[in-house]
Design goal:
The chain is an alpha+beta fold and 511 residues long. 34% of the residues lie in helices and 20% in strands.
Length: 511
């Protein structure tokens, strides 16, 4: 009898990275299992998807990744696709922000939350004179006495250190362009912990940023990469390469798992620990499982097998967003498009969160005489927009772009892609909840969690989460299993359970 496989549920970037890492590590461990990846939809990649339409290249999910976190670059090298990476365009290296109906440059040297140069802040019309003076006082604001694990909301921290104007006019739109989150609930410890650490260590964010910049400058050596990169033919290059390396024989698309149950070990099947019920009624036995979807999906799968863990996972909320692509002839657009895009403060009361000038930001996205713009709408800030139909979303996006970019006429192409419940909301205290989830999961031998719901939402974070889940699973399966108790009690002959501290009714299942 063949040994039970390791099963990865979810073929988004985290699941593919986990499966690939298992295949990489097995030869080094001198031990090998069969591998199966289950994906409910008809294709791999999750939210990463690239479409080619009318000489346009459109990424309907993430359109790039940050290189200050190494995991996407490292994986690209191991897959042999690093030669397909391209940086952001060398021209127009800036972003814009909406202020009273105008697009104004984000001050040079303003990094997400704080200025590193003062003249751009002094000269910008984004802030009033009192607002600028309040920001300049940051180095005089006493540090809040916190330990290394303390948390605070983005709104509370920025207002406390830089003033409300800095939050409302610049920090909130910059951060919402990444997290689509409400600043009053967004956890700083889970998203930008370095700013809390700068206050704790240096007494000032500005002082800490300048010292960090000086330290980086002294230590610069070797190859330098653009802060953001993508692939010449779109982000799908990464997921296609992963799926190709894993092999189509190991990936089942259109296959949805509906529940998971723990299985008692028997002498005939000593490696079997989990049974996965599929939506067609089949049962699949597994030696180990990695759940690589949203925490909400994992919670539903674990409702009976691990009810406490299921409830903890369900507590992580998600927001939905829409990406609207609009293409125009260049002559239709009156704005010079001398930036990578723009962000929109909540107080401007517009129907979009941010827009990227895709044809400016990366080469090969549109012909020279075309303009391709990518608009992000919805999120936790404007959930009501997700109730609009596609035509209304296109109309709203075009109407906003028309007034801001001085567009004449209708778009030559429009495409809407909805991402339902894909953006986890890292609320204050999020990391404490994640630590409790990891502790609870550690008691379930042969089960691991991955995805964007825990310690990062970007592509590199999701890759790292998948690879770390694979490492933990391998370490768990390497331990001896003879005579071991299950998390739900000692397995007895015949496959029954003696319940021990579980609030669920467990019953053994077989394939």
């Amino acid at each position: 009898m063949e040994p039970a496989p390791i099963v990865v549920i979810g073929a988004g970037i985290s699941g593919l990275a986990a499966a690939h890492h298992l295949l990489e590590r097995w030869p080094q461990r001198g031990r090998r299992w069969s591998l199966l990846v289950l994906e409910a939809s008809e294709q791999c990649g999750g939210v990463i998807r690239t479409i080619e339409r009318d000489d346009l290249l459109l990424d309907t999910g993430p359109d790039n990744f940050i290189t200050t976190k190494p995991w996407a670059l490292d994986l690209s090298r191991r897959l042999g696709i690093d030669d397909q990476l391209i940086p952001t365009s060398g021209s127009h290296k800036r972003a814009l922000v909406v202020r009273r109906g105008r697009l104004l440059p984000v001050p040079d040297g303003f990094l997400l939350m704080a200025p590193t140069r003062w003249w751009p802040i002094i000269s910008t019309p984004i802030f009033s004179l009192p607002g600028k003076l309040r920001m300049a006082m940051e180095r005089l604001i006493p540090r809040r006495e916190l330990d290394e694990s303390s948390d605070e909301s983005l709104a509370s921290f920025v207002t406390r250190r830089f003033g409300r104007e800095a939050l409302e006019r610049l920090v909130q739109p910059l951060m919402s362009g990444v997290y689509t989150a409400v600043p009053e609930s967004l956890s700083l410890r889970a998203t930008m912990p370095q700013f809390l650490d700068m206050e704790r260590e240096h007494g000032s964010v500005i002082r800490g940023m300048r010292r960090a910049a000086a330290s980086r400058k002294r230590g610069e050596s070797g190859a330098r990469y653009s802060m953001f990169m993508t692939y010449r033919r779109g982000m799908r290059t990464l997921t296609d390469a992963l799926a190709g390396r894993i092999g189509s024989q190991r990936i089942q698309t259109g296959c949805r798992a509906v529940s998971i149950a723990s299985v008692a070990q028997t002498p005939d099947e000593p490696t079997v620990r989990w049974c996965i019920r599929l939506d067609d009624g089949r049962d699949l036995l597994a030696a180990g499982v990695i759940l690589a979807g949203s925490t909400q999906t994992s919670a539903r799968l674990l409702t009976e097998a691990a009810p406490m863990l299921s409830r903890m996972l369900m507590n992580i909320e998600y927001a939905s967003a829409a990406v609207v692509h609009l293409a125009y002839a260049r002559r239709q657009v009156g704005h010079p498009l001398d930036a990578y895009g723009f962000v929109v403060p909540r107080q401007e009361k517009r129907r979009l969160i941010a827009a990227s000038f895709s044809s400016v930001k990366y080469e090969g996205r549109a012909p020279q005489d075309k303009v391709l713009i990518r608009v992000v709408m919805g999120g936790a800030l404007q959930p009501q927009l997700m109730q609009l139909d596609d035509d209304d979303l296109v109309h709203a996006a075009h109407d906003e772009l028309r007034s801001l970019l001085h567009i004449d006429g209708q778009p030559e192409l429009s495409l809407v892609h909805r991402h339902h419940q894909v953006m986890p909301q890292y609320t204050v205290g999020h990391l404490k909840g994640v630590a409790a989830i990891h502790e609870r999961t550690a008691a379930l031998r042969g089960l691991e969690l991955a995805g964007n719901g825990f310690e990062g939402v970007g592509v590199p974070d999701c890759i790292h989460a998948g690879e770390q889940a694979a490492e933990r699973l391998l370490a768990s399966l390497d331990r001896p299993i003879e005579g071991e108790d299950t998390p739900f009690g000692r397995a007895k002959a015949g496959g029954s359970y003696r319940q021990s501290g579980s609030d669920s009714s467990m019953s053994p299942v077989t394939a």
